[in-house]
Amino acid sequence: MGKFISKRKLFAFRLLVVIISLAFVLGIGEIAFRILRPVDLGTSHMHRIPHAERGWALEPEARYINQVGPILVPVEYSSEGWRDIDHVLPKPLHESRIVVLGDSFMEGYSVRSEETMTRRLESLLREQGQPETRAVNLGVGGYGTLQELITYRTVGARHEPFLVLLGFYENDLWNNLPGLDSDGLKLQTRPFLLDGPGFRISTIDYEGALERFEANRIAAENDFFMRMKRNSALAQRIDDAKAYVGSQIETAFALGQAAWSRGRGAIDSSAEAERLKSRKASADRCADRVTRAWSTTERILAQLDEEVEAHGGKLIVFSVPAIRGIPFSEVGLSPSQTAGNCSRDAAPSQLAVVTQRLGIDFIDLFPAFHTRSDGDPEALFHAADLHWNAAGHNLAASVIADELTDTLAAIRAGRGIEAEGSSSSP
User: Fold this and answer.
1) How many Cα neighbours within 13 Å face the side chain of 252?
2) For residue 287, what pLDDT is reported?
3) Strands 163-169, 314-320: parallel, antiparallel or unpaired by DSSP?
4) Which end of the chain is more exposed for a tag (fewer CB within 10 A), N or C?
5) How high does pLDDT run on average in the chain?
6) 164/127 Cα distance (integer angstroms)
């Protein structure tokens, strides 16, 4: 009996040693990872709060670290809820303001604040002899063109901009029509332009969105594993490793599936013919929705142009290049993320047609991005989240600044304003 008790004590002692050793190792690991990286990781999605008119907005004064691959990007929002500094309102008489509208590319959460297109554009214009120019960043991740119009109405116009720049990304077309918007969560809260006469906007279920938001936030705060992930650098590193392994497996599977499909297609020509027939039918169904989406987009742009002009400003639309030259399977995208496999490649050319028809100036950034990338998308994009890196933001700002030279000169000439050193502003 005594030997049995001694063995139990020995087992308990050894178990205690193992537990203490494990706790010590985990503690050392936690300290090491806290030194190597911050704990307050987050994403823009975590800080998008319900908004009664725009669907959602950025949480005022929120701060977090956005991890983009191996890069850690500090992100903070102004007291008004923008990825920008706080601008004085009403606008001082000596200032000339440019309002920038757009989605996550304009919000710029994948680069530091000073590296965003808006900040770089402001710096470049000042260097070109526009010392009193201020660029106001009103970009919000996930926004469609209608939300950008509402943003101008409710916020942008108060800045009395002489120029309004709208960045149009390829999925903005999808965001402008319920039948193409495949994101269920955003679909529940996004406003849409209604069919029929007039310019009527759908009503947002703000109270319902607010209830869902509060419920999700409370659930996240009460979830033990979610709290551990937020508060433990070691847990975050383990989660990163799991995500990396998962992405590698998904990529390998997608590539293997593509190779298998090609091999099978070569063997079974009848099956390939059937697939092509199915794809054509899908494309035909999509074509009608895309046509409606462009019609809706054109109505929104026309309305925005009218309102900007009524306030004494000028609207300019520019294309926002997406990452090119990489197959979907190699960047972790699935067909379901391409809005029913409807091709988006025609977006830049069609946007040029629409803006020309409306008499709106258009700046196409695609040629410059294609030339500069030279077959290497990572020269201008983050492979981790497919958004522009600092070089991409700088290139966009440089092209736009150069294109604005004649526009700014014309505005100044029309108002009798001298260049640098003038006490007036456009």
Assistant:
1) 6
2) 77
3) parallel
4) N
5) 80
6) 20
Which residues, other chains included, contact 34 with Cβ-Cβ below 8 Å and sequence gap of 6+? 233
Distance CA 253, CA 247 (A): 10
How far, in whole angstroms, is CA 51 from its chain's centroid? Answer: 18
Q: For 27-162, where are the E strands, in sequence order?
A: 48-51, 55-58, 63-68, 71-76, 96-101, 133-137
- Planar angle of CA 110, 116, 118, nearest 5 degrees: 145
Q: 314: closest CA among 280, 371, 358?
A: 358
Closest of 297, 320, 336 to residue 396, by C-alpha: 320
d(CA 48, CA 140): 9
CA distance 260 to 266: 10
Would you kindly state where each structural domain of the chain is located, as residue ranges?
86-216+276-415
Residue 148 CA to residue 154 CA, distance in Å, equals: 10
> Tokens at residue 156, please?
């942008």
Is-above-0.85 flag for pTM?
A: no
Question: Percent helix, strand and coil across the chain, each rounded to 5?
Answer: 55, 10, 30
198 vs 186: which has the higher pLDDT: 198
| Location of structure tokens 């260049």 | 419
Residue type, 317: V
171-to-128, 243, 347, 393 alpha-carbon distances in Å: 33, 25, 9, 19
Cβ atoms within 10 Å of 324's Cβ, excluding its own: 14
- The residue with tokens 């000042």 is 126
Architecture of domain 86-216+276-415: 3-Layer(aba) Sandwich (3.40)
Question: Rounded CA gap, 405 and 407, in Å?
Answer: 5
Determine how many CB atoms are found less than 10 A away from the CB of residue 139: 26
Angle between the N-to-C axes of helices 390-415 and 117-127, in degrees from 0 to 180, rounded to the nearest 10? 50
| Greater pLDDT, 15 or 204 | 204
Q: Please tell me the predicted confidence (pLDDT) of residue 178.
A: 84
Answer yes or no: are the C-beta atoms of 322 and 170 closer than 8 Å.
yes
- 401 DSSP assignment: H
Q: What is the pLDDT of residues 376-426, one digit of tens each?
A: 888 999 988 999 999 999 999 999 999 998 888 776 666 555 444 443 344
* 416 torsion bin: left (phi>0), alpha (psi -120 to 50), beta (else): left
Half-sphere exposure of 230 (CA within 13 A, CB side): 12
Three-state DSSP class for 76? Answer: strand
* Residue 317, beta-bridge partner list: 166, 362
- Give the span between the Cα atoms of 372 and 2, in whole angstroms: 80
97, two tokens: 């303001």
* Residue 386 contacts residue 323 (beta carbons within 8 Å): yes
